[in-house]
Amino acid sequence: MTVVHDNLEKTEAKMRAEAVSVFYGDKKAIDEVSIDIPTEYVTAFIGPSGCGKSTFLRTLNRMNDTIPTARVEGSIQLDGEDIYASGMDVVQLRARVGMVFQKPNPFPKSIYDNIAYGPKIHGLAEGKDELDAIVEKSLRRAGLWEEVKERLQDSGTALSGGQQQRLCIARAIAVDPEVILMDEPCSALDPIATAKIEELIAELNGRYAIVIVTHSMQQAARVSQRTAFFHLGKMVEYGRTSDIFTNPHEQRTQDYITGRYG
Amino acid sequence: MSERIAPTRTPEFEARLKKRYASERRFRALGLGAIVFSVAVLVFLLGTMTFNGIGGFQRVEMEVPIDFTEAGIAADPAAMEQPGALASLEAQGLRDVVQYFAEEELGEAAAEELGAQAWRDVATAIIADPAVLQRSESFWLPASANLASGYEGEGSPEMQALAAGLYEEGRLAKNFDPGFLGRSDATNPQQVGIWGALKGSLLTMVVTLLLAFPIGVLAALYLEEYAPKNRWTDLIELSINNLAAVPSIIFGLLGLAVFLTLFPNLRSAPLIGGMTLALMTMPVIVIAGRNAIKAVPPSIRDGALAIGASPVQVVFHHVLPLALPGILTGTIIGMARALGETAPLLMIGMRAFVATPPDGFTSPATVLPMQIFLWSDEIDRGFVERTSAAIIVLLLFLLVMNGLAIYLRNKFEKTW
């Protein structure tokens, strides 16, 4: 099969995957996926359930390492550096490639401590003032500052679902990553909270390379400029979001976006 | 079109519905009954214990007025602060002085029945306030065990008569005995105290906690967070579960065979007792700890890993604090069991008669349940009440220990 990189203009790839395969034990979950992820755009991964898009996302910051049976082949580069090379430090990699999960998972600590945790363990702030500044900046970028500035010491788990997810995004931003991976960040949220997260993604676009896995094709169409369609562990098509949705090259893409299966 | 009958509107359905409600009512009544029964048993237990035990905190004492101006005992206040003060008073014949005044005031028969160690109470009073030597002072001093049984209406008729006579004069009474909490074991029930056993229990529990808690928690963390899941870890899990179910006396044999062979000089020491009980407590903490660690949502681990926390940071910043309430619950259960344990301690010699409170972790000691066991075995009637009093002290100790653990647990409890 051919992966169509449809007349994309040349961009510098922040992350580059080459012939990446992922195995869970003997089962091949991802089959030779190659893709370039640019900083300038939001990249969306779409596809039916179980197609491997989340698995592939988790290989990008080596979160698959926590699954004992998972094995990755091929190469994934961040700024030209192989992240699966033996010299690569996972802790540093994850500080550079942040992640937001499907279900909001704030730590059962105060809002302040949720944001401050990353900078603290990486030693990014010297003194309380600097830490306060990072917390405020991160919360402002995540569009949460106005809602929580009066109650930074309240528990992060006491916030509403949408606020919790923005708190998680703020937590990821706080360590100043280069890439943010989002694994279906809105699937547990109501439409209003979803709209806020989508607005936020649009605002963060350009500052960070953003990759978002989503089940909702409308969401992919709204927030992304690049879309990759996955099916049965393979990447079927990758191109401009507008092209994928209006003029896909592959029949399977066409079938999926028109609701033939999914 | 045929008429459709809703399946939930039939008489059969209504009959079934009634049955369902009836079974719910039955279940509730049974549950309530179970709770009422356990509360009643508890109240009965505590009630009889308190009722019997109150007497254990009292002792039969007789009033002996002593005129120190006549006695000719000298005590310089500075010397009274020295450690040798008691010996100095003994050398000056304080014992005979007390005996003399008892004979003078109460008669020869009564003086015979003054407790052998009664003069020590007087000496303690003098050491506390040497000024009493300048005046005449009245003391309530412990009677002998025989006179005490006479007071209770038991023992020989002569003793009963003597006790009745002294009681009439107001010279014999059963008074509250604060010294019970300060003294140690003795052969005379009038002279015994619980402090030695209490301190022994305290020291033993400290050793148990310091060994079992960190080892148990670290073992649980390693097994849950780091160890690969394979045949070996399954085997270890099985062994730990079996260890938790091993009868406690076996642990005593182990302590005897291993610890006392390694440290033969530490027989009866709280250190060895604590080590033996720690072996018994550790598996309970490991099992509770593993369950508590398993219950920490994986999403918290993912969240921490994803911002670049190292595995150790994930464990100590997130998993352990969230699992701590559950671990503490397991620790409460394990420690409460260890506190009430006698069998393993029998084996390592903690059933010795220890008349002085232990100085430290290596001096001979006994523990509260062992003291209760020893006293319950005594023939003298006075020990019955003392045994009940010791049980009350043990229960209060348990209550304080558990209260502390529950306080800590609630403090660390968080929601997510």
From TrEMBL, chain A:
Residues 15-257 form the ABC transporter domain. One of its GO terms (biological process) is phosphate ion transmembrane transport. GO terms for cellular component: membrane. Signal peptide: none annotated. SUPFAM superfamilies: P-loop containing nucleoside triphosphate hydrolases. Keywords: ATP-binding, Nucleotide-binding, Phosphate transport, Transport. GO terms for molecular function: ATP binding; ATP hydrolysis activity; phosphate transmembrane transporter activity. InterPro entries: AAA+_ATPase (IPR003593), ABC_transporter-like_ATP-bd (IPR003439), ABC_transporter-like_CS (IPR017871), P-loop_NTPase (IPR027417), PstB-like (IPR005670). Coiled coil: none annotated. PANTHER family: ABC TRANSPORTER I FAMILY MEMBER 17. This is Phosphate ABC transporter ATP-binding protein.
